[in-house]
Design a protein that fits this description.
- This protein has one helix at about 1-25, and strands spanning about 30-40, 45-50, 55-60, 75-85, 90-100.
- It has about 110 residues and is α+β, with helices and mostly antiparallel strands.
- A 5-stranded mixed β-barrel has the order 1-2-3-5-4.
- The longest helix is centred in the first third of the chain and has 25 residues, at about 1-25.
- The N and C termini lie far apart (about 80 Å).
- The model has no long low-confidence stretch (mean pLDDT about 85).
Length: about 110
């Protein structure tokens, strides 16, 4: 009887550990929205001077171009990002971008 009880608890422990690890892998990463001015931009990155005065490098690599359109220097933007691990480092990845105020280099339509 004691052996059956121990076996049952061991099986329950394994199942709960598997379920917890499975759920942690399927959760969406937390998003954050950053606002600021574009001070540099390349094909795969945007350097943003935030409203708080921080300078952040945000990756646009593998971003959906319809949700993360191109920007010009001095555009004011709102960028929704997630933090991803890349080679052991935390990298901000752009998910969505909106130009809130066009910069001086953007011609009116």
């Amino acid at each position: 009887m004691m052996r059956t009880t121990k076996l049952f608890f061991m099986a329950a422990l394994v199942v709960s550990a598997f379920t917890a690890s499975f759920l942690s892998c399927t959760q969406k990463p937390a998003t954050q929205t950053l606002k600021g001015k574009v001070i540099d931009a390349t094909m795969n990155n945007i350097m943003l001077l935030t409203e708080k005065g921080d300078t952040l490098n945000i990756s646009t690599m593998d971003a959906d171009p319809s949700k993360v359109p191109g920007v010009l220097l001095e555009d004011k933007v709102a960028i929704t990002c997630v933090t991803k691990k890349v080679n052991g480092n935390d990298v901000l990845q752009a998910v969505e971008l909106t130009v809130t105020e066009p910069g001086p280099y953007r011609t009116p339509k």
